[in-house]
C-alpha cells in the first residue's frame, strides 16, 4: 500500500521543504487548491485533490469535503474489507494530513470585521480533515512546529506509535475546539464563552498539599506579561501559590507603572513585595538601591518568606540589599522568589537558598512597563456550576483631569497614586497608607472599613513608621 500525505495549509512557509522530506521518506503528495499550485511551482510532484474528487463546485468551496478525502482518512487499515473498498473506488489510504486553518481569530480581532468577513475566513474543510485524521488514527499535524519532530519520528521507525498518534490527535481536536469556540463567541455575542488552554507547567500541589494535581494552563495569547513568559532561571519550579502571587504582583506592578506614566509621563523604578498576593512592601524612586531599601522597610516582618518583583535588573549590589538590609549581622533575609527583567549571575549566587527554595523568574517585559501594560482581557472566576465574567481592572486615575479637584504637592500626588495602585489591587476591603514614595501600612481584606483603617495604622506603627502626612487610599 503506497504512502500518501495530504497537505493543505493556509501559511505556506516551510511547506516545500516538508513535502520534499516526505517524498524522500516514500510518500506521495496529495494537495488542494493554492497549496497544490504552490508545491507544483516549486517542482514538487503533487496530485491535486480536484483531480481525484472531480471539478470543484461553488467557487472552490467544496473540494476536500468529499468522500474520497474523508474515506481515505477514516478507513481502518486493520479491516481488509475497508481497504478493498478503497481500492475498488480508486481512493488512496491517506496516512498523514497536515492542515493549518484560515486565520479566523485575526479577522475577528479586526476593528472593521463584519459577520460576512468572519464567515469568509471560517475554515470548514480544514477542521473536518483534522478531525477525520484524528479519528482515523492518522499522523495529523495542525501546528507547523510539529513537522520536524514528525519527520524524525518517522525516520526513527515510529516508536511508541499509539501514544504519539494520540498526542497529535488530541492537539488537533483542541485546535478545532478553540477555532469553533471563536466563531461561537463572535456570532453568539454574550451568549457563549469558550475557555481553552494548553498545559504549560505542573505544580507539586495546589493551594494545599492534598490538592493534586495542579497545573498552569496557557491561553496562548501574545501578551508578553502572560505567566508562561516568566522564565525560571534558577531555583525550584514555582508553586501554585507562587503563580497566584505572581499574577497579583503583575496587576499591582502594572497599575503603579500606568498611574505614574499617566500622571507624570514617565515610569520610575518600582519594587514590590507580596505575601499571599497582597503587597507588604512597595516603593518608587529614581535610584534602585533606595527603592529596594524603602520596599524592605515597609514591613520587615511580613516580607520574610515573601516574593519580590522589580522593573529593573537585580545585580550584585541589589542582591546584597535584599539579603542584608536591616538584617542582624550574620543572618540573611529569606525570600520565596524574586521576579525581575533580568539577573546577573552574581546576584543569583548571592540570593540562592538551600534546596532551591528561592525561585528566580525573569521577564524582560518588566523593564518596559507603562500605560500599555494594563491587562484588558476580561477576567473569569469559577463559581459552583459555572463561572463569572467581568471586565478587567483598567481604571487609571488622572490627577490632571479637569473633573478632579487636587490640592496636593507633586510628591503627595505620587504618594496618592502609589497608594491607589497598591490598594486597588489588594483584597477588598483595603485601606493603604503611603509616605515618601513607600508603602508603610496595608490593611487588607477586612469586613469593615473601620477595621481596615485600624489595621493599616497598626501595621504602619508596628513597623516603626510615622503616619503623619501619609497619603491614604
Q: Over the alpha carbons, how many angstroms does the gyration radius reach? A: 29 Å
What structural class do the secondary elements suggest? alpha/beta
Q: What's the total number of strands? A: 18
Low-confidence stretches: none
- What shape does the CA trace take? elongated
- Helicity, as a percent range: 25-40%
User: Total number of helical segments?
Assistant: 16
**Average pLDDT rating:** 94
Beta content comes to 15-25%
Q: Which secondary structure elements does this structure contain, and how are they paired or packed?
A:
Elements: E1 3-9, H1 15-24, E2 27-31, H2 33-41, E3 47-48, H3 49-53, H4 67-74, H5 80-89, E4 94-100, H6 104-109, H7 115-120, H8 125-135, E5 139-141, H9 147-155, H10 161-187, E6 198-203, E7 214-218, E8 231-234, H11 240-264, E9 269-275, E10 278-285, H12 288-298, E11 307-310, H13 316-324, E12 337-340, H14 345-351, E13 359-362, E14 379-383, E15 386-390, H15 410-424, E16 430-435, E17 438-444, H16 449-462, E18 471-472
Parallel strand pairs: 1-2, 1-4, 2-3, 4-5, 11-12, 12-13
Antiparallel strand pairs: 6-7, 8-13, 9-10, 9-11, 14-15, 16-17, 16-18
